[in-house]
Specification:
- By secondary structure, the chain is α/β, with parallel strands linked by helices.
- It has helices spanning 8-18, 25-37, 40-56, 73-76, 91-99, 127-135, 150-163, 188-196; strands at 58-59, 66-67, 81-88, 105-109, 141-144, 169-172, 199-200.
- The longest helix is centred in the first third of the chain and has 17 residues, at 40-56.
- The structure holds zinc ion (ZN).
- Zinc ion is lined by residues 60, 62-63, 65, 71-72, 74-75.
- Zinc ion binds at residues 60, 62-63, 65, 71-72, 74-75.
Length: 201
């Protein structure tokens, strides 16, 4: 039996945990030791929850939002306005806009923002799918609600360029969300104002 934690199953668990976003080595060690000390059921239930999510939750084939049913409830809702399409980076941004109960159009989740340094170009995002949706013809306005970060602004400018030939209006949500901030954390009033104050791109 190994007497150090540099090899073997504990090291393996720590290494796997460090692959998760925001988890550094120290945190991974704390999580691993917490699980080792907790009753076995804790680990079993955590593992089962991870597997269940992987099994049951899939991206919506229309908007890429994670969903149990395809198309997702929002894409399937006949009450939503097909003329408005709001583009966000991630599903949690969509959730933040939905919390305002202010926007009645549909969504498209890009799956991130352009970031050449990280190797994320248009092909890594759901841009083709967005173009296809807009070309179908029902969309009159595309509201670009990417984050007000360098990557989010570059993505907005890129989308304005590629969407232009479709003839749809392309708008950008107004400033108000702090620069470099995340839509995810914007409060409802700020988010509603950002939507109302959108301007042509
Ligand atoms: Zn959907």
């Amino acid at each position: 039996m190994s007497t150090t934690l540099d090899t073997g199953p504990v090291a393996e668990l720590i290494e796997r945990l460090t692959r998760l976003p925001t988890v550094g080595r120290k945190t991974a060690q704390r999580l691993a030791f917490y699980l080792l000390k907790a009753p076995a059921s804790e680990s079993q239930e955590l593992a089962a929850a991870i597997l269940e999510v992987r099994e049951r939750i899939k991206p919506c084939s229309r908007c890429n939002n994670l969903t149990e049913q395809d198309p997702c409830a929002l894409c399937a809702d006949p009450e939503r306005d097909d003329a408005l399409l709001c583009v966000v980076e991630e599903g949690h941004d969509m959730a933040a806009i939905e919390r305002t109960s202010h926007y009645r159009g549909r969504y498209h989740v890009l799956g991130g923002a352009l970031s050449p340094l990280d190797g994320i170009g248009p092909d890594e995002l759901h841009v083709d799918q967005l173009l296809r949706r807009v070309r179908e013809g029902q969309v009159q306005e595309v509201i670009v609600a990417t984050n007000p970060t360098v990557e989010g602004e570059a993505t907005a400018a890129f989308l304005a360029r590629v969407l232009k030939p479709t003839g749809a209006r392309v708008t950008r949500i107004a400033a108000g969300i702090p620069v470099g901030g995340d839509i995810e954390y914007a409060d409802e009033v700020t988010m509603s104002r950002a939507m109302d104050g959108r301007r042509e791109l």
